[in-house]
Amino acid sequence: MIESDLLTMAYPPLLVFAAALLVLVLPRALGFAVAALSLAATVAVAFFAPEGAHLTTTFLGFADIQPFYIDEFTRMVGGGLGFLGAFGVIYAYSSDAPRVMAAFALAYVASALGAAFAGDWLVLVFMWEIMAITSTLLVWHHGGDAVRAGYRYAIAHGIGGSLVLFAVIAQYAITGSFAMVDAAGETVGMADGLPLLLAVLGIGVNVAFVGFHTWLPDTYPRPHFAASVFLAAFTTKTSAYVLFRAIPDGHLLLAYMGGAMAVYGVVFALLQHDMRALLSYHIQAQLGYMVAGIGIGTAIGVAGAMGHLFNNVLYKSLLFMAVGVVIYRTGENDLYKLGGLWREMPITAIAFAIGALSITAVPGFSGFISKGMVLDAADPGYYGAPEYQALYWLLFIGAIGTFLSFIKLGYYVFLHGPAERTVKDAKTGQTVAMFSVGGACVILGLPVVGWPVFTDLLPLVDGVTVTQLDTALNPYSAGHLTDAAILIAVSAVGFKLIRKPLSKLDYSDPALIVNPATYYTGRYTMLGVTDLYAAVDAAVVGFVKRCYWLGNNPALAVDEAARRVPGLEVEKRQPADGGRPSTIHLRTSIGTTVLLLTIVLTAVLWVLVT
Amino acid sequence: MSSVELLPALLVAIPILLAAVPIVLGLRYDRTGWSVAAVTTVGLAAATIALASAVYADGQVVHVLGGWGEPQGIGIELVADEFSTLIAVLVTVTAAAVLAYTRIGGPRGNTFYAGYLLLVGGLLGLSMTGDVFNMFVFLEIVGLATYAMISSGDGPESAVAALKYLILGTVGASLYLIGVGFLFMATGALNMQVLGEAIPQIAEAGGGDLTLLHAAFAFIFVGFALKVAQWPLHTWQPDAYQHAPDGVTPVIAALVSTVSAYALGRVMFTVFGVDFLVATPYLTEIVVAVGSISVLAGSTLAVIQTDVKRMFAYSSVSQFGLVVAAYGLVTETALLGAIVHLIGHGLMKAGLFVAAGVIALGYGARTVDEYAGLADRRPIPAAATAVLLIALIGIPPSVGFIGKWYIAVGSVQAEMWPVAAVVFLSTMLTLAYAARLLEKMYFTPASALESPHGPGAVATDGGERTDGHNTADAGAESIAADGGILVGSSSRGSPDSVSFGMLALLVSTAVLAVVLGFAGGTFADLLGPFVTEVFN
Fold first, then answer.
1. Does A571 touch chain B (CB under 8 A)?
2. Where is the NADH:quinone oxidoreductase/Mrp antiporter transmembrane domain (chain A) (predicted)?
3. A522 & A501 share domain
4. Residue B485 confidence (pLDDT)
5. Per-residue pLDDT for B374 more than 70?
6. Which of B217, B225, B462 sits opposite A608 (nearest CB)?
7. What is the number of H-type helices and E-type strands within chain A?
């Protein structure tokens, strides 16, 4: 098929990167259009290019490197990222995003796509590092507060990236190959031991494991609100996908880390005042569901995780878009200072509602399908094992927390009290972007018509059947709907109870402790190393200087040494020639040399001849 | 006899014959010496390169002098093989290039250039002779020419240094001659090729003749150890290098000891042969020990010098120690390394002494302390010195690195760990004296108070600074007389007397030292046939 052959040549990251360069030089509207088109093309390539490895090449002296690999996983991740990216560009265009920022964002998108389409670890780690750099530039470009946060972001990702790099090296040392996927299309995974440990820790930085997450709520609220849309979608989701590639079979501890992230994320999300910080903590919580699904490692767990990843790309960006419009129109980040905006900006309110209903997994929206799959994978009543019982409850608590915090966000921004200000609603481009993304969230979650299409996209799921388990999915069963109803009821009552005390709480972010701790640890380590170096340096230089002095002033040195001997009087040496006080006449006379010559000759003759 | 076979004989005869021309012309004209020398050396360089291309294409070229093919091996031959041709190229190219310095920098005079040509002829003969007695003759020609060159410096120090070299050099050559006598007694032959075949047979037979061979080796080795300036027989060398005129030191330093070291290698490997060297108890140990001790002693002495030329002279003691130690390892790689280091050291040391001359001429600086702040005032000579020093340390890419590298690899192959340690230590010690100079040039500001030729400027070992910088002083004073500029630290030396040719020579030497650092494979290819033949 000629068309599909052509598609295999269209390496999406390259297309997007070319668009990034074009945005800089073309007129603004045209440049953004080209960028959106390049991302739309990415979606087309992702869905229509034939499966398998393309553009196999030799890179850095390693043969059989696959930069462009298409299978069910990369198709879905790459397609999802491309779809969101296209509307993100439209949103950025109408949000007055500067062209340079757009270029950085597109370069960042290109590197994330490169990581998503990578067919082996070498390309992946390469793209991984570029992604860290481009995203840091995207943050830095905003200036002000974003610079320091971007610096912390860069340090975190530098450490994470190095760990992944070492993991890939260790993997190569053990297995002798960079292959991510074997010939049959099965994911290989990192070898047990050092590679796996390093990989999980390194990827753990990017997917915001509890304890490694401080960069996330620190960084994402600070740059331009259109940049936040991109940041929210790409790094963490790509990393969650890579986490699956590293541990295809899951691990109990990893699953529980996912549960912990879900609970931890929503608890801190509830405590936030800043709208984008609240959403940022939700990124961590939602990643918790993906990590849990990957950790469980069963077909439905992984499929649910991937589905949740895809959905998350859509609705989390939608939420960042809606909140971005609010910030754009009001200039206010603090949700307690807003209120009643639904009358002023109904379009934005509707878009926000779609996103909120999706993320809280209300039936009829896409989040319901994927979150349900993860919960079912953990629930011993469905597909889970007994050891996941506690995980199930953690994820359930996370779901309640998600409800609470989105009720909080929606209530204070759009409902609470009368609108104190008169503002315009979203611009056309913003509206188009929000409703396109929101539309996908709704359609993919609709009963009967929508969700089978969505599940068909998922890896390991064929139509509505989970291939390995040979069971059909049935999200709209009575049991699931009851669960959802319980969830909503508990949350609605719960919010009534905690609304008052919650509004009095100001958040105590662990970043407040972690950042100074990191700062002082870094500072004193640096000082320690510098001082140690200086001490060693001084010692060595002092030693060498003394040696030189000894060599140049042998007579003085002998005098000095003699003076230290007790009971020995040494006269002060008077320079005889008026210049240097310490000269030894080493010059050997002709006679002495001839004597030496004779001695050497005698010695050599004696050794050789006798 | 084809024209190529004539070349070796012409290369030796022409400079010796033309040495008379400057003197004859001098009866009529004042300054013809330089022109004659320039034309001759450039012609010789072209001829050696032509010879080299023939040798590397078709193998060795042998010229039987007078066509006297005598059966017992007393007939005199000139042999241009892969090893000797490389040395001949070094000799002629260096001799031609250094003339770029002496044109302005001196010394002048027709007799000087007569001696210069005689020296070149002797060196070429020494490189290409295929006969051990003839080698003595050329050794003496080189020696005599060198004495004349050293004594051409003004002042008593030059005369004393020349006398010292005259006496010691003659004693060394005599020891060599005694060794040759023993050889002749044992084998009845003088031709190297014939000797190379006879000696293994005697070694196998044993008896009194073998003892003669051992004695012969002892005399020859000790004689060359003096000529190559191995510690503790080096004592003539620092004086000679320091007190020779600035224009002469590069030639002597780069060529005289180098060709002597070549001759030692030639006698060891072509005449005595690998089997004899390895079979004789303690022989390789002695050679390695002499070389290694020279490396350490020479570097250490170099570190404590205050006079730059003297420092470079001691550095030569150490670098030749490395070459001798490499000979003693008796492996293919080490021999290759020794040859490469011979060439590389000759090049770098010539460059360094030219730099020392240029700096003395243009800046009036002769001691390490006076080099302070040189990088700011004379950036080109300072940079060239820096590059050459770095190459001498053996930091890649440089010709110094590949030589040391091959020697180090050879020592590891021979499992002579002390030598490997000495190579490493020599690098550290070279770094020590090079760093001293680099630090002065680049990081110490020139002191305005310091008098350029203060009374305290006496070399550590008592070698007093004299002569040689007269030209520089004269230049500086003439500025003072003409333009009223005071002779002081701000106008030391006379930059005007540094010609473009000198700087071009300096810069191209530095560049060559780096470029040849990429030529390790080329050297290995060129010398491969010789090394293989020696070891099989």
1. no
2. 118-378
3. no
4. 38
5. yes
6. B217
7. 23, 7
Asked whether residue A271 falls in the same domain as residue A404, the answer is yes
Q: Does A604 touch chain B (CB under 8 A)?
A: yes
Give the N- to C-terminal CA distance of chain A in Å, as an integer: 90
Question: Could you read off the pLDDT of A330-363 as tens digits, one per residue?
Answer: 888 887 788 778 888 888 888 888 888 888 888 8
pLDDT of residue B264: 92
A-contacting residues of B 163-202, CB under 8 Å? 163-164, 167-168, 171-172, 175
How far apart are the C-alpha atoms of B76 and B214, rounded to whole Å? Answer: 25
- Closest to B339 in 3D by CA, of B404, B283, B430: B404
What digits encode the pLDDT tens for the residues B64-112? 776 666 655 566 788 888 888 889 999 999 988 888 888 877 787 778 8
Task: Give A-chain residues touching B225 at CB under 8 angstroms.
Answer: 600
Is B288 inside a domain boundary?
yes
Pairing of strands B77-80, B61-64: antiparallel
Question: Cβ separation of A579 and B172 shorter than 8 Å?
Answer: no
Complex ipTM above 0.85?
A: no
Do residue A286 and residue A234 come from a single domain? no
Q: pLDDT tens across A372-428, in order? A: 888 888 888 777 778 888 888 888 888 888 888 888 888 888 887 777 777 788 788
Residue B375 belongs to some domain of the structure = yes
Three-state secondary structure string covering A141-187: CCCCHHHHHHHHHHHHHHHHHHHHHHHHHHHHHHHCCCECECCCCCE
Which amino acid is located at B355 in the chain? A
Q: Which of B221, B236, B462 is closest, CB to CB, to A583?
A: B462
Evaluate whether residue A575 is within a structural domain: no
In B, residues 206-235, which contact A (CB 8 Å cutoff)? 211, 214-215, 217-219, 221-222, 225-226, 232-233, 235
User: How many residues comprise chain A?
Assistant: 610
Q: What range does the domain containing B345 cover?
A: 284-445+485-536
Choose, out of A585, A586, A592, the residue to mutate when testing the contact with B (most B CBs < 10 Å). A586
CB contact, 8 Å: B461 with chain A?
yes
- What domain count does chain B have? 1
Q: Is A465 helix (H, G, I), strand (E, B) or coil?
A: strand
Size of interface A-B (CB pairs under 8 A): 96
Does A544 contact B300 at a Cβ distance shorter than 8 Å? no
For residue range B6-15, list pLDDT tens digits in order. 888 888 888 8
Same domain? A605 vs A497: no
One domain for residues A236 and A270: no
The total number of structural domains that make up chain A = 3
The residue ranges of DSSP E strands in A438-548, in sequence order, are: 461-462, 465-466, 471-472
Res. B126: pLDDT tops 80: yes
**B226 inside domain:** no
DSSP A214: T
Q: pTM of the full predicted structure?
A: 0.58
Same domain, residue pair A220 and A352: no
| Domain's final residue, options A456, A481, A508 | A508
Spell out the residues 6+ positions from residue B219 whose beta carbon is closer than 8 angstroms to its own. A601, A605, B175, B176, B178, B179, B182
- Pick from A457, A491, A508: which residue ends a domain? A508
Q: What's the gap in Å between the CA of A556 and the closest CA on chain B?
A: 13
User: Is A597 within 8 Å of chain B by CB?
Assistant: yes
Characterise A514 by phi-psi region: left (phi > 0), alpha (psi -120 to 50), beta (else): alpha
* Rounded average pLDDT over B30-57: 85
Pairwise CB contact (< 8 Å): B215 & A605: yes
| A116 and A256, same domain (yes or no) | no
DSSP string, A38-52: HHHHHHHHHHHSPSE
For residue B486, what pLDDT is reported?
38
Give the residue numbers spanning the domain of A332. Answer: 251-508
Evaluate whether residue B324 is within a structural domain.
yes
- B301: which chain A residues are within 8 Å (Cβ-Cβ)? 586
